[in-house]
Write a structure and sequence with these properties.
The protein is α+β, with helices and mostly antiparallel strands. The chain has one domain. The chain is built from 1 helix and 4 strands, in the order ββββα. It has a 4-stranded antiparallel beta sheet, with helices on one face. Strand 3 and strand 4 form a beta hairpin. It is globular. About 30% of the residues are buried.
């Protein structure tokens, strides 16, 4: 396990994470498939809610950061657990 502040930084392909303040708990994490993160997706960048593993695939790194910030605020419901999405 990674550090207390960044618990997913030891996962292959980890790029960045942000705590989810939208009532869903957990973290929104960006992973890079080209740097070892293994998931079946069509795009390089994965924005994932941990620990639910709900995710979206994004074609650009800038788009992944934008989606991470939106999801952390509860504004990207497709990757948040349905019972907690706003």
């Amino acid at each position: 396990m990674g550090s207390k502040r960044k618990p997913y930084n030891d996962v292959y392909g980890y790029v960045a994470s942000r705590k989810c303040y939208a009532g869903c708990g957990g973290y929104i994490v960006i992973y890079d498939r080209e740097n070892g993160f293994d998931i079946d997706a069509d795009e390089r960048w994965i924005v994932m809610h941990e620990p639910s593993s709900l995710h979206v695939a994004v074609p650009t790194r800038a788009g992944a950061y934008k989606d991470m910030k939106l999801a952390a605020k509860g504004l990207l419901p497709e990757i948040l657990p349905s019972s907690n999405a706003e």
